[in-house]
Amino acid sequence: MYQSITTIELEQVLKQESQAILDVRDRDDFEVGHIEGALNIPIDELAEKSSTLDKNRPYMIICYAGGRSQAASEFLAQKGYQVTNVMGGMGAWRGEVK
After folding, report:
1. What is the tally of structural domains in the chain?
2. Is the pLDDT of residue 80 over 90?
3. pTM, two decimal places
4. Which domain holds residue 28?
């Protein structure tokens, strides 16, 4: 099971505390612009690279519109990771990008 938040809620959380953000978009999209400090693991590589993530650390999962992050959140939650899906993704993000 996982939770979901909006990009507005994520922006408010980030003003108060640091969060681990996992961006599951393709590398090219990630390079165009991403939330500072985000880790990029494209969704098509997630199954093989999920073991590199810390199960004791919560992750905010983001993509462009929310579909891939929802699928990634479901996958990671089933594997025992603490995840929150960011609804609306980078398409709805109004904060700073790197």
Report:
1. 1
2. yes
3. 0.95
4. 3-92
Residue 97 forms part of a structural domain: no
- Residue 1, pLDDT > 90, answer no
Residue 17 lies in a domain: yes
Encoded tokens for 21: 């953000």
Indicate which residue of 10, 63, 76, 90 is catalytic: 63
User: Which DSSP category does 88 fall into?
Assistant: T
How many C-beta atoms surround the C-beta of residue 42 within 10 A? Answer: 18
In a domain, 23, yes or no: yes
DSSP codes of every residue in 31-81? HH---TT-EE--GGGHHHHGGGS-TTS-EEEE-SSSHHHHHHHHHHHHTT-
To the query of whether residue 98 is one of the catalytic residues in this protein, the response is: no
47-75 per-position pLDDT tens digit = 999 999 999 999 999 999 999 999 999 99
d(CA 83, CA 74): 9
